[in-house]
Protein: S100 calcium binding protein A3
Organism: Molossus molossus
Amino acid sequence: MVRPLEQAVATIVCTFREYAGRCGDKHKLCQAELKELLQTELPNWTPTEFRDCDYNKLMSALDTNKDCEVDFVEYMRSLACLCVCCHDHFKDCPPEPPCSQ
């Protein structure tokens, strides 16, 4: 039986691999791939009013080695920050609602 955290890790890795390499390096996300990943996989968390300049800023923030792509480590840092923000938001709530949604 697969535990939820095991499934979450597999999903994180598989999602990155699904989008990476469509435009080039199969181990990195270009800005178009990152944008598609965010819009498709996090539609409720990606503002619909995001403009290309907003994606440029996000890409610049995530691309710490400045190679104009987001590698898996940079992707994981962004997900870790997202998890910390969610944890902070829900830390005073009962554990059931955030985990069941």
About this structure: The radius of gyration is 15 Å. The beta strands are 28-29, 70-71. The mean pLDDT is 89. The CA atoms of residues 30 and 69 lie 5 Å apart.
